[in-house]
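Fill in residues.
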Protein backbone atom coordinates (compact mmCIF):
# COMPACT_ATOMS: atom_id res chain seq x y z
CA UNK A 1 0.00 0.00 0.00
CA UNK A 2 2.93 2.27 0.73
CA UNK A 3 3.83 2.04 -2.93
CA UNK A 4 0.46 3.23 -4.08
CA UNK A 5 0.36 5.94 -1.49
CA UNK A 6 3.75 7.23 -2.53
CA UNK A 7 2.69 7.46 -6.14
CA UNK A 8 -0.60 9.10 -5.40
CA UNK A 9 1.17 11.62 -3.23
CA UNK A 10 3.47 12.36 -6.12
CA UNK A 11 0.61 12.77 -8.55
CA UNK A 12 -1.08 15.26 -6.27
CA UNK A 13 2.12 17.13 -5.80
CA UNK A 14 2.79 17.11 -9.49
CA UNK A 15 -0.72 18.19 -10.40
CA UNK A 16 -0.23 21.13 -8.09
CA UNK A 17 2.74 22.35 -10.07
CA UNK A 18 1.89 21.78 -13.69
CA UNK A 19 -1.83 21.22 -13.54
CA UNK A 20 -1.21 17.99 -15.42
CA UNK A 21 -0.56 14.57 -14.06
CA UNK A 22 2.74 13.17 -15.21
CA UNK A 23 2.32 9.56 -16.13
CA UNK A 24 4.46 6.99 -14.40
CA UNK A 25 6.11 6.45 -17.75
CA UNK A 26 7.13 10.11 -18.00
CA UNK A 27 8.20 10.14 -14.39
CA UNK A 28 10.27 7.04 -14.97
CA UNK A 29 12.09 8.62 -17.88
CA UNK A 30 12.70 11.77 -15.83
CA UNK A 31 14.09 9.55 -13.10
CA UNK A 32 16.33 7.73 -15.55
CA UNK A 33 17.80 11.00 -16.77
CA UNK A 34 18.18 12.41 -13.30
CA UNK A 35 21.52 10.78 -12.55
CA UNK A 36 23.12 12.04 -15.73
CA UNK A 37 21.65 15.51 -15.21
CA UNK A 38 23.08 15.48 -11.71
CA UNK A 39 19.69 16.22 -10.20
CA UNK A 40 20.10 14.00 -7.15
CA UNK A 41 21.49 15.48 -3.97
CA UNK A 42 22.43 13.57 -0.86
CA UNK A 43 21.52 14.86 2.56
CA UNK A 44 23.10 13.47 5.70
CA UNK A 45 21.45 13.24 9.09
CA UNK A 46 23.66 12.91 12.17
CA UNK A 47 23.21 10.21 14.79
CA UNK A 48 24.43 10.74 18.34
CA UNK A 49 25.58 8.45 21.09
CA UNK A 50 22.99 8.65 23.89
CA UNK A 51 25.55 8.51 26.70
CA UNK A 52 28.27 10.83 25.37
CA UNK A 53 26.32 12.85 22.80
CA UNK A 54 29.23 12.33 20.45
CA UNK A 55 28.46 11.83 16.78
CA UNK A 56 28.00 8.14 16.07
CA UNK A 57 27.16 8.07 12.38
CA UNK A 58 25.30 9.80 9.56
CA UNK A 59 22.41 8.50 7.48
CA UNK A 60 22.35 9.29 3.77
CA UNK A 61 18.96 10.45 2.48
CA UNK A 62 18.46 11.16 -1.20
CA UNK A 63 16.70 14.25 -2.58
CA UNK A 64 15.67 14.83 -6.18
CA UNK A 65 16.01 18.38 -7.39
CA UNK A 66 14.17 17.93 -10.68
CA UNK A 67 14.38 20.65 -13.29
CA UNK A 68 10.81 19.96 -14.32
CA UNK A 69 9.21 19.02 -11.00
CA UNK A 70 11.16 20.91 -8.38
CA UNK A 71 12.23 19.24 -5.13
CA UNK A 72 10.78 15.75 -4.87
CA UNK A 73 11.06 13.80 -1.64
CA UNK A 74 12.13 10.15 -1.66
CA UNK A 75 8.74 9.02 -0.34
CA UNK A 76 7.37 10.29 -3.66
CA UNK A 77 9.85 8.75 -6.11
CA UNK A 78 11.55 5.79 -4.41
CA UNK A 79 8.41 3.60 -4.73
CA UNK A 80 8.25 4.19 -8.50
CA UNK A 81 12.01 3.77 -8.87
CA UNK A 82 11.67 0.50 -7.02
CA UNK A 83 8.76 -0.70 -9.11
CA UNK A 84 10.50 0.08 -12.40
CA UNK A 85 13.94 -1.11 -11.35
CA UNK A 86 15.59 2.30 -11.77
CA UNK A 87 16.39 2.10 -8.06
CA UNK A 88 19.28 -0.26 -8.79
CA UNK A 89 21.14 2.38 -10.75
CA UNK A 90 20.12 5.23 -8.46
CA UNK A 91 21.02 3.18 -5.41
CA UNK A 92 24.44 2.36 -6.75
CA UNK A 93 25.09 6.05 -7.33
CA UNK A 94 23.99 6.78 -3.75
CA UNK A 95 26.36 4.19 -2.26
CA UNK A 96 29.26 5.43 -4.37
CA UNK A 97 28.65 9.08 -3.55
CA UNK A 98 28.14 8.41 0.18
CA UNK A 99 31.37 6.39 0.32
CA UNK A 100 33.26 9.08 -1.58
CA UNK A 101 31.92 11.73 0.79
CA UNK A 102 32.87 9.72 3.85
CA UNK A 103 36.41 9.22 2.54
CA UNK A 104 36.63 12.98 2.07
CA UNK A 105 35.48 13.56 5.67
CA UNK A 106 38.12 11.10 6.89
CA UNK A 107 40.80 12.76 4.84
CA UNK A 108 39.94 16.21 6.19
CA UNK A 109 39.76 14.83 9.73
CA UNK A 110 36.21 16.08 10.14
CA UNK A 111 34.71 12.90 11.51
CA UNK A 112 35.39 9.23 11.70
CA UNK A 113 31.98 7.57 11.73
CA UNK A 114 30.07 5.15 9.52
CA UNK A 115 27.85 6.48 6.76
CA UNK A 116 24.53 4.63 6.43
CA UNK A 117 22.82 4.03 3.11
CA UNK A 118 19.26 2.76 2.61
CA UNK A 119 18.98 -0.34 0.43
CA UNK A 120 15.75 -1.11 -1.37
CA UNK A 121 14.40 -4.64 -1.64
CA UNK A 122 15.23 -4.77 -5.32
CA UNK A 123 18.80 -3.67 -4.72
CA UNK A 124 19.22 -6.18 -1.95
CA UNK A 125 18.14 -9.04 -4.21
CA UNK A 126 20.20 -8.13 -7.29
CA UNK A 127 22.62 -10.96 -7.97
CA UNK A 128 25.85 -9.00 -7.84
CA UNK A 129 25.13 -6.69 -4.89
CA UNK A 130 28.03 -7.94 -2.79
CA UNK A 131 30.52 -7.65 -5.67
CA UNK A 132 29.27 -4.17 -6.46
CA UNK A 133 29.72 -3.01 -2.90
CA UNK A 134 33.14 -4.58 -2.70
CA UNK A 135 34.08 -2.74 -5.91
CA UNK A 136 32.79 0.58 -4.58
CA UNK A 137 34.78 0.18 -1.34
CA UNK A 138 37.85 -0.67 -3.38
CA UNK A 139 37.37 2.22 -5.77
CA UNK A 140 36.65 4.87 -3.12
CA UNK A 141 39.08 3.50 -0.56
CA UNK A 142 36.51 3.54 2.26
CA UNK A 143 37.15 1.12 5.12
CA UNK A 144 34.24 -1.37 5.13
CA UNK A 145 33.42 -0.72 8.79
CA UNK A 146 32.65 2.88 7.83
CA UNK A 147 29.75 1.81 5.62
CA UNK A 148 26.42 0.71 7.06
CA UNK A 149 23.60 -0.69 4.93
CA UNK A 150 20.02 -0.16 6.07
CA UNK A 151 17.58 -2.87 5.15
CA UNK A 152 13.94 -3.39 6.12
CA UNK A 153 12.02 -6.38 7.37
CA UNK A 154 10.67 -6.95 3.86
CA UNK A 155 13.94 -8.67 2.92
CA UNK A 156 12.92 -11.53 5.20
CA UNK A 157 10.44 -12.58 2.52
CA UNK A 158 13.11 -14.86 1.08
CA UNK A 159 14.79 -15.69 4.32
CA UNK A 160 17.37 -18.21 3.12
CA UNK A 161 18.71 -15.94 0.40
CA UNK A 162 18.63 -12.96 2.75
CA UNK A 163 20.73 -14.77 5.35
CA UNK A 164 23.29 -15.68 2.68
CA UNK A 165 23.52 -12.13 1.30
CA UNK A 166 23.80 -10.66 4.79
CA UNK A 167 26.54 -13.11 5.70
CA UNK A 168 28.43 -12.22 2.51
CA UNK A 169 28.07 -8.51 3.32
CA UNK A 170 29.28 -9.09 6.88
CA UNK A 171 32.25 -11.01 5.48
CA UNK A 172 33.12 -7.86 3.54
CA UNK A 173 33.17 -6.04 6.87
CA UNK A 174 30.28 -3.62 6.36
CA UNK A 175 27.66 -2.95 9.05
CA UNK A 176 23.96 -3.78 8.78
CA UNK A 177 21.02 -1.89 10.26
CA UNK A 178 17.41 -3.07 10.39
CA UNK A 179 15.39 0.05 9.53
CA UNK A 180 11.81 0.91 10.56
CA UNK A 181 11.86 -2.04 12.93
CA UNK A 182 8.44 -3.23 14.04
CA UNK A 183 6.50 -1.82 11.11
CA UNK A 184 6.84 -4.74 8.70
CA UNK A 185 5.52 -8.26 8.62
CA UNK A 186 8.02 -10.60 10.05
CA UNK A 187 8.69 -12.94 12.87
CA UNK A 188 11.31 -12.38 15.51
CA UNK A 189 12.96 -15.61 14.40
CA UNK A 190 15.08 -14.00 11.68
CA UNK A 191 16.55 -11.44 14.04
CA UNK A 192 18.82 -14.03 15.52
CA UNK A 193 19.77 -15.58 12.18
CA UNK A 194 20.42 -12.18 10.55
CA UNK A 195 23.76 -10.62 11.45
CA UNK A 196 22.46 -7.19 12.42
CA UNK A 197 24.46 -4.41 14.09
CA UNK A 198 21.73 -1.79 14.59
CA UNK A 199 18.02 -2.01 15.22
CA UNK A 200 16.27 1.21 14.22
CA UNK A 201 13.11 2.04 16.12
CA UNK A 202 10.64 3.53 13.68
CA UNK A 203 9.78 7.19 14.25
CA UNK A 204 6.10 6.32 14.64
CA UNK A 205 7.03 4.52 17.89
CA UNK A 206 9.44 7.22 19.08
CA UNK A 207 6.74 9.81 18.64
CA UNK A 208 4.22 7.76 20.56
CA UNK A 209 6.23 7.47 23.77
CA UNK A 210 3.83 9.51 25.82
CA UNK A 211 1.13 6.89 25.63
CA UNK A 212 1.20 3.54 27.35
CA UNK A 213 1.24 1.36 24.24
CA UNK A 214 3.94 3.42 22.59
CA UNK A 215 6.11 3.23 25.67
CA UNK A 216 5.57 -0.53 25.91
CA UNK A 217 6.62 -1.07 22.29
CA UNK A 218 9.78 1.01 22.54
CA UNK A 219 10.73 -0.59 25.87
CA UNK A 220 10.33 -4.01 24.30
CA UNK A 221 12.46 -3.18 21.26
CA UNK A 222 15.24 -1.71 23.40
CA UNK A 223 15.23 -4.75 25.69
CA UNK A 224 15.21 -7.04 22.68
CA UNK A 225 18.26 -5.22 21.34
CA UNK A 226 19.98 -5.56 24.70
CA UNK A 227 19.38 -9.27 24.98
CA UNK A 228 20.52 -9.89 21.40
CA UNK A 229 23.53 -7.58 21.71
CA UNK A 230 22.25 -5.25 18.97
CA UNK A 231 22.53 -1.45 19.27
CA UNK A 232 19.20 0.37 19.23
CA UNK A 233 18.76 3.61 17.32
CA UNK A 234 15.69 5.79 17.92
CA UNK A 235 14.53 7.50 14.74
CA UNK A 236 12.48 10.67 14.70
CA UNK A 237 13.53 12.10 18.09
CA UNK A 238 11.94 15.55 18.09
CA UNK A 239 11.73 16.62 21.72
CA UNK A 240 13.83 16.65 24.88
CA UNK A 241 11.09 14.61 26.61
CA UNK A 242 11.43 11.81 24.06
CA UNK A 243 15.18 12.06 24.37
CA UNK A 244 15.03 11.69 28.18
CA UNK A 245 12.68 8.72 28.13
CA UNK A 246 14.83 6.96 25.52
CA UNK A 247 17.92 7.50 27.64
CA UNK A 248 16.19 6.09 30.69
CA UNK A 249 15.09 3.03 28.72
CA UNK A 250 18.70 2.40 27.69
CA UNK A 251 18.50 3.29 24.00
CA UNK A 252 21.99 3.58 22.45
CA UNK A 253 21.70 6.13 19.64
CA UNK A 254 19.58 9.18 18.88
CA UNK A 255 18.52 10.29 15.41
CA UNK A 256 15.96 13.03 14.79
CA UNK A 257 15.22 16.68 14.23
CA UNK A 258 15.92 17.46 17.89
CA UNK A 259 19.57 16.54 17.29
CA UNK A 260 19.87 17.53 13.65
CA UNK A 261 17.88 17.48 10.44
CA UNK A 262 19.22 15.90 7.27
CA UNK A 263 21.59 18.44 5.74
CA UNK A 264 23.73 18.80 2.65
CA UNK A 265 27.35 17.78 3.23
CA UNK A 266 28.70 21.29 3.83
CA UNK A 267 25.89 22.26 6.19
CA UNK A 268 26.36 19.01 8.10
CA UNK A 269 30.06 19.80 8.49
CA UNK A 270 29.17 23.17 10.04
CA UNK A 271 26.60 21.48 12.27
CA UNK A 272 29.12 18.91 13.47
CA UNK A 273 31.87 21.48 14.00
CA UNK A 274 29.45 23.70 15.86
CA UNK A 275 29.30 21.06 18.59
CA UNK A 276 26.49 18.84 19.78
CA UNK A 277 23.47 19.32 21.95
P1 LIG B 1 14.14 6.14 6.52
O1 LIG B 1 15.34 5.43 6.00
O2 LIG B 1 13.42 5.53 7.64
O3 LIG B 1 14.67 7.60 6.90
C1 LIG B 1 14.20 8.37 7.95
C2 LIG B 1 13.23 9.42 7.48
O4 LIG B 1 12.75 10.15 8.61
C3 LIG B 1 13.84 10.49 6.57
O5 LIG B 1 12.82 10.92 5.67
C4 LIG B 1 14.19 11.60 7.54
O6 LIG B 1 14.29 12.87 6.91
C5 LIG B 1 13.02 11.53 8.45
N1 LIG B 1 13.29 12.07 9.79
C6 LIG B 1 14.45 12.05 10.48
N2 LIG B 1 14.31 12.60 11.70
C7 LIG B 1 13.02 12.99 11.79
C8 LIG B 1 12.25 13.63 12.83
O7 LIG B 1 12.73 13.96 13.91
N3 LIG B 1 10.94 13.85 12.55
C9 LIG B 1 10.36 13.49 11.36
N4 LIG B 1 9.06 13.77 11.19
N5 LIG B 1 11.06 12.90 10.38
C10 LIG B 1 12.37 12.64 10.59
P2 LIG B 1 13.13 11.11 4.12
O8 LIG B 1 14.47 11.72 3.95
O9 LIG B 1 11.96 11.80 3.51
O10 LIG B 1 13.20 9.63 3.57
C11 LIG B 1 12.06 8.81 3.59
C12 LIG B 1 12.41 7.39 3.23
O11 LIG B 1 12.84 7.30 1.88
C13 LIG B 1 13.55 6.81 4.06
O12 LIG B 1 13.08 6.39 5.33
C14 LIG B 1 13.97 5.67 3.18
O13 LIG B 1 13.13 4.57 3.36
C15 LIG B 1 13.75 6.24 1.78
N6 LIG B 1 15.03 6.70 1.24
C16 LIG B 1 15.67 7.87 1.42
N7 LIG B 1 16.84 7.89 0.74
C17 LIG B 1 16.95 6.70 0.12
C18 LIG B 1 17.91 6.10 -0.75
O14 LIG B 1 18.98 6.65 -1.07
N8 LIG B 1 17.64 4.84 -1.20
C19 LIG B 1 16.51 4.15 -0.84
N9 LIG B 1 16.31 2.92 -1.31
N10 LIG B 1 15.58 4.68 -0.03
C20 LIG B 1 15.79 5.94 0.45
MG1 LIG C 1 16.90 4.56 6.87
MG1 LIG D 1 13.49 4.45 9.22
MG1 LIG E 1 11.09 4.83 6.58
Amino acid sequence: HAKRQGRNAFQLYNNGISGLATSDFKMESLLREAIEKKEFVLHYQPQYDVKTLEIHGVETLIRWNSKELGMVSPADFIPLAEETGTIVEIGEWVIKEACRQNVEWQRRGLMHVPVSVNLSLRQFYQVNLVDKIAAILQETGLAPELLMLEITESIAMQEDIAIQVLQDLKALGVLIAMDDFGTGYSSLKYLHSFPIDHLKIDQAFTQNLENKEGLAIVTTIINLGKSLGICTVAEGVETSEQSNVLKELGCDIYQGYYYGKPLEAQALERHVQGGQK
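Residues 1-20 have pLDDT under 50 and may be disordered.
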